[in-house]
Amino acid sequence: MTLTAVLLAGGESRRMGRDKAEIVFRGQPLWQRQIELLRDLGPEKIFVSVRNEPSWLPLDTELILDRPPSRGPLSGLTKALERMQTSHLVALAVDMPFMTSEQMRFLCGLAIAGRGVVPVVNDRAEPLAAVYPREAVADFATALAGSNFSLQTLARNLARAGTIQTLNVEVEAQGFYRSVNEPADLVREG
Asked: Is the backbone of residue 87 left (phi > 0), alpha (psi -120 to 50) or beta?
């Protein structure tokens, strides 16, 4: 298995009130924290998916800009799958700072040739901390060209087709998948 990684940092951050990627969390900007986590996986390439070129873009990454109209993370994931030259794409949202290298390695370890893995927490897919096989590119492109941009729907369709397996996340690991969406989430980081 070969990996490409994508950091998804293209959200509008309306509830947070400022760019989440630049928020300092436990001594580091969120973008830096997540890039380091992705680097630990040893991908051949790291994409950064954003709406506009950020001032913080690391030199060892490749920029993926959402083309208007943006369809949220579906746009970035589709473009990354189209551009990658490896067997799998590992995706991570910039606003999931509780994720660990160990948990991401665990997910990567469950992926096999032609099949990825999407975690499920409380019956909801967590498609922004997941591993997708190259074979999913057509499904992503079809979803992007359609009218339903829901990653929940897409994850269900990929699971039915056997392109991904879903992983029910144990209660003790569910905190890894928690997002910070508003300032209060940073206060309740525990």
From this structure: alpha
Structure confidence at residue 176 (pLDDT): 94
Domains with residue ranges and CATH for the chain? 3-187 (3.90.550.10)
For residue 148, the tally of other CB atoms under 10 A from its CB is 10
d(CA 65, CA 53): 7
- Look at residue 102 and give its three-state secondary structure: helix
In this prediction, residue 72 carries a pLDDT of 84
Q: Which residues does 144 contact at the CB level (< 8 Å), separation at least 6?
A: 71, 74, 75, 78
Alpha-carbon torsion angle 79, 16, 155, 153, nearest 10:
-100
